[in-house]
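Could you please consider the sequence and fold appended to this message?
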Amino acid sequence: MSEAVSSEVRSVLIPLESERLLLPNAAVAEVVGYRKPEPQANLPDWLLGFIEWRQYDIPVVSFDGLLDKSIQAPGHRGRIIVTHTLNGDEELPYIGLVAQAIPRLVRVTSDNILPASTDEDMGVVIQKPVIVGGESALIPDLDELELLVQDALAQM
């Protein structure tokens, strides 16, 4: 195997209303068609509710809401990106992320990703803004996202 192939990370660019998220493909369990989450009382605006997926109730998050942007319901191309959680919590094995369209596969290498400078405070759920393949994207902190969702669910 060549060094170029072994040093790439297969990833997905997830289109939000205001930004794009960049996630490693391994973090994604499945991409499903958008369906309106069932709302629950006492949840923050960014936690839209739950969908049933493979006999799990998955909390669905609007990253736009987490970034203090307006929350828009996706159109007919909308998707929910079901992601694995990282901490082995049996009560919260997956989190859904709302996407405005189908994510696009990208190969990330040291040659096509650069840090992006921004004056905007991205908050605790963003590890780093980047430029990948000439496009701006945000790398989310999935550990922090999981903690925020757990805290919100504990308030229900």
